[in-house]
Write a structure and sequence with these properties.
The protein is of the alpha+beta class. It folds into 2 domains: about 190 residues, no CATH class; about 210 residues, no CATH class. Helix content is about 55%, strand content about 15%. The protein is built from 11 helices and 14 strands. Strands 1, 3, 4, 5, 6, 7, 8, 9, 10, 11, 13 and 14 form a 12-stranded mixed sheet that branches. Strands 2-12 form a two-stranded antiparallel sheet. The longest helix is centred in the first third of the chain and has 49 residues.
Length: about 425
């Protein structure tokens, strides 16, 4: 006869075990999924930041004149002074570790100061040396950059940014050779540059007009005044040491106290990049700590479910031991079940995490503007490492239940009966 109560008991047991296994597997799934998402987001943040400053020299520094902070050689505190062309020659001659040296000047910016035909706009104007392209890559889309001949001959030529080109040339015609009126003076366009979008020192290249610094000095009646100096160190040399040496020479050449810390402002890109590197390292460590904690919680759940499974199968395991089953067989059975449960849930979490990162990149990040994330993908090494961790965790999760199973004897099976 059909035993309905026995059937219901078996059905409840099977359903309970499936639900228990599903919830436990979901814990592992969620742990590895969150680890992959956080790793991808952290990597995407780093790639986005580095992409935004791609083309900018990481071993560079910038400095300019500021009011003095100390009285010196008869000059009062608060004296205004300026760097000049002669300072460039002395710095280049006195500092052997100095690689690239470029002066920078700022021109006037007022409403509609740049005009072409019937179109006009308000843009920054910079006076640059030909060497500046080795500090900030202009990423030319058309034409060329300022060269040494432009500097020596004080040519009235200019390189416009891509934003300037789009605004003043709505038909997207060829701007090379055209005459552009900048601050009331006509310049010949020689190039269109995009520049480094993630960095801004005074003005973005895409939104500015660059002319030879010697030409700007002449047309603005500034003599040989320089507003800012940009410099890079040779490979293997410290930018910080070069920066301090440059300050010493500038102070000595302009009658400034050697102990005056206010007379020269400076910005060290090497220090900023190192700070970013430490920040990203800290983010990665934090991600691994949080993600590993979530994963460990899932592994503990697997171990607990296996302990419950061993307890419910006391009769089966005891009978098998009485019939001569070796400890190795029992251990293999328990640990393989733990390994399979952990691996399936973990690999599903890994695959789903990678899929989510890919979809976010394709349907959101690549279309969005001003987003710091870029290519939020986990590396192949990270995926392999995560898989190894999963397999190892699955084996560890089965150790305690396997040890518990080895202690079951035939007499226990009889008691369970």
């Amino acid at each position: 006869m059909f035993d309905l109560d026995r059937f219901q008991e078996i059905w409840v047991t099977i359903t309970r075990n499936k639900v228990r296994s599903f919830l436990t597997g979901f814990g592992v799934f969620w742990g590895i999924f969150m680890l992959v998402i956080m790793m991808g987001a952290g990597t995407g943040l780093q790639r986005g930041m580095m992409k935004g400053i791609k083309g900018f020299s990481t071993n560079s520094c910038f400095m300019g004149a500021a009011p003095t902070g100390e009285a010196y050689k008869g000059f009062k505190k608060g004296r205004n002074w300026s760097m000049r062309n002669r300072d460039l020659e002395i710095l280049q001659r006195s500092i052997p570790e100095l690689d690239v040296l470029s002066p920078v000047l700022w021109g006037g910016r007022f409403p509609n100061n740049v005009v072409y035909g019937d179109n006009s706009g308000t843009y920054s104007v910079r006076g640059l040396h030909a060497n500046y392209q080795f500090i900030e890559n202009p990423f030319l889309t058309q034409g060329r950059f300022i060269n040494e001949i432009d500097i020596v001959q004080r040519r009235k030529v200019c390189v416009i940014g891509t934003k300037v080109y789009e605004d003043l040339f709505p038909t997207r015609g060829n701007p090379i050779g055209r005459q552009l009126r900048v601050n009331g003076i006509y310049f010949q366009i020689i190039g269109v540059a995009e520049g480094v979008q993630g960095m801004q020192l005074g003005a973005r290249t895409s939104e500015s007009v660059s002319i030879p610094f010697t030409t700007m000095q002449q047309i603005n009646n500034q003599g040989d005044v320089i507003h800012m100096i940009a410099a890079t160190a040779k490979p293997g040399h410290s930018v910080k040491a070069m920066e301090e040496r440059m300050k010493e020479i500038l102070k000595a050449n302009n009658d400034i106290s050697p102990t005056d810390t206010q007379a020269i402002w400076s910005f060290n890109m090497e220090e900023q990049f190192n700070m970013f590197s430490y920040l990203f390292l800290g983010i990665i460590i934090l991600i691994w700590i949080v993600g590993s904690g979530t994963l460990i919680a899932g592994i503990v759940g697997v171990s607990n479910i296996m302990l419950v499974t061993v307890k419910e199968r006391t009769k089966e395991i005891g009978v098998r031991r009485a019939l001569g089953a070796k400890p190795k067989t029992i251990i293999t059975q328990i640990m393989s079940e733990s390994l399979v449960l952990t691996s399936i849930a973990g690999l599903l979490g890994l695959s789903f995490g990678v899929l989510c990162l890919h979809l976010a990149d394709v349907y959101w990040l690549q279309k969005a503007e001003n987003v710091f994330l870029s290519d939020p993908m986990v590396s192949f090494g990270t995926a392999i490492g995560s898989t190894i961790i999963l397999l190892g965790s699955g084996l560890l999760a089965g150790l305690l239940p396997a040890a518990r199973a080895l202690k079951i004897k035939a007499i226990d099976a009889i008691r369970e009966e």
